[in-house]
Each structure stands twice: as structure tokens, then as C-alpha cells.
Amino acid sequence: MYRPTSAPSKKPGSGRRLPRIGAALLLGLLAALIVAGLGAVYVSRQPVKYSASNQLLVAPESKLDPSVSSAYWETLGNGQLPATAASIVNDKRLLKAATADLDPATRDAITTTVSVVPSTAVVNVEVTAPSASAAEDVANSLSRLSTSEVSDALAPYQFEVISDADGTATLASLSHAQWAGLVAVVALFAGVAVYQLVSWRARVLARRRGVQAVPAS
User: Fold this and answer.
1) Contact 94, 15 (CB under 8 A)
2) 3-state SS class at 52
3) How far is Cα 135 from Cα 93, in angstroms, rounded to an integer?
4) Beta carbons of 132 and 146 less than 8 angstroms apart
5) What is the mean pLDDT of residues 1-6?
6) What is the pTM of this model?
7) What percentage of the chain reaches a pLDDT higher than 70?
8) What's the CA gap between 154 and 149, in Å, rounded?
9) Helix/strand number for the chain, H first, E second
């Protein structure tokens, strides 16, 4: 006697599993693209900066008699003269003269840091600029301009360059390539997070529908 066989039962919501996964992937990809796009706009607005530095020394004039210069070296040890020299180098008037040949955009982006190397008579001049060449050129120009200013103000001491800025320029900020890598990582994490969230939410809803579909005994 023939008995019709019933079709195998399907778990509630099992037919929607693949569409749910596809939706989660699509939303995750969309989130990653949005983050990447916003990140690209942000990166394009981040200036790349370079810094270069040189050192100058405050010392008694070389023409002084050795018997006299020793006393000046002792006076130099209290640190007051190098600090005075650093304040003169930091004069905005000298920076304006050192950047006179630059275009306005580059000139406005220039920053300087002038400091005395601890326990020495050495003054360190660091210049930050949008390009390596601009940083080095301004550092050298500022040092050249300040030597006569400081030497005149602190006579019989002289102010001389002991290390110029040529070849000292280094990145002072993230490069665009580094920014792009960082944005890519953030976009990837955002996409995975959205995918996981949407998938979890879909599983929760499927379980709820499954419970509601079970007839009460």
C-alpha cells in the first residue's frame, strides 16, 4: 500500500541564511568603503612636515689672550650667556629675514625651536617645514643671520656654527603612505565590526522567529 512521504522539514529561517550572510557582507563592505573614503579626504588634508637642525657654540673670541679667555670660559659655565644667545636666535625678526625668499604658504608653515643643550654652551636650532630642503635651508640661513647678532650682543664672546643642517632633515609627521596604511587598517576593522554586528543581529532575530514558530503543547 502506497503511503505518501512527507518532505523533510526545514528549520525556520534556514532558507534565509545565505541572503542574511550576503546582506551582512554587503553592509560590512559598505562600512569599510565609507571609512576609507572619509579617511582619504582626511589624509589629503594632512601636511607632511620635515625637521632639520644645526648647532651653534657660544665661546670667547679666539683673538683673546689665553690668560684672559680662561676667565671668560668660567663665566660661560653659568649658562646665562647661552640662554641669551638662544633668545636672540628666536627673534621673529631673524626668522622673517631667513624665510624672505620662500613662497607665502611655505613661509607660514615654518616653525622653529631654539634650545640650549643642557650643561653646555651649545645652542640647538630646529626648523620644521613642509619640505626637507626648506627645513635645511631655513635652519642654515637662520644660523648665519644670528651669528653676527649674537656675537655683537655678547662681545667679547663669539657665536659660531659647529654643525650645519645639511642632510639632517627627517620626517616630523606621518607620511601620506603611512596615513594610507592606517586608514586601511581602520576601514578593515570597521567593515569586520559591521559584518559581525549585522550577522549577530540576524541570528538573534532568526532564533526569535524559530521560538515563535514552535506550536505550544
Assistant:
1) no
2) strand
3) 18
4) no
5) 52
6) 0.61
7) 82
8) 9
9) 7, 5
